[in-house]
Amino acid sequence: MPKTREGTEEIEACPECGSHHLVRDYERGELLCEDCGLVLDDQFIDQGPEWRAFDVEQGEKRARTGAPMTYTIHDKGLSTEISWKNKDSYGKSIPTRNRAQLYRLRKWQRRIRVSNATERNLAFALSELDRMASAMGLPRNVRETAAMIYRKAVNKNLIRGRSIEGVVAASLYAACRQCGVPRTLDEVAGSSRVGRKEIGRTYRFMTRELKLKLMPTKPQDYVQRFCSELKLSGEVQSKAAEILKDASEKELTSGRGPTGVAAAAIYISSILCNERRTQREVADVAGVTEVTIRNRYKELTEKLGIEIAL
Predict the structure, then answer these.
(1) What's this model's pTM, rounded to 2 decimal places?
(2) Domain ranges in the chain?
């Protein structure tokens, strides 16, 4: 039978209808009556299952209070922050006479969070990284990996003489490849304030100095994203994957740009599955030229014996 505390009294039954069918809604932090819908407690705490610990030290290590640590914030999210809302911990409005003092505390708290040059560098760089990752729609694990790579570059003093934006963009490009979420240099350059050449140069330097072991991207890595952007069905995607598998077995993909080969395979499969897309449409999504698609398309159809009725 669910029990909770409202003040100091335990609730065993609904005071409205007398029902004992009480439900805990952990998402909203509420205790509800299942029969009449009355909210009995709107600040319900999820105590959670007890974790196994054999001594006090282990118990403290396994505490689950506060936000998780993250490398995408310069202080790893471990410092406190005074909220901009003029309310206390009980949700009550702070008196007007105390607001000036709160404003000064908030200002100094912001200042002391960044204490030296390295932290200032990290604060600017990681905010830039977050902006670029948001513009490219990258998942959380890629952002964390990119932040870790940038921190390693700072510790090894690799950013001296290079722009912060260039190193951030190179870190993000490396993280994309490391996490299996490939993005082209042109896409990264489109979201950053530096050029493609500088990003490529910085990326090669960082992989050499940090000894990053990154496998080259494959055409198969781009098929799903390109098909999604072209609004093609799963059948076209499967057919393109089959074409690329046959092409890799016959070594038709080696020495060629993966995006161009992937775009040509999607173009062929869209025709075979009667969901035709023009070379211009596919080229715009893949970031290659129509000439590249035509060359790869002719090569694949001839070597793989694919007949297409144009």
Answers:
(1) 0.65
(2) 4-41, 117-210, 220-304
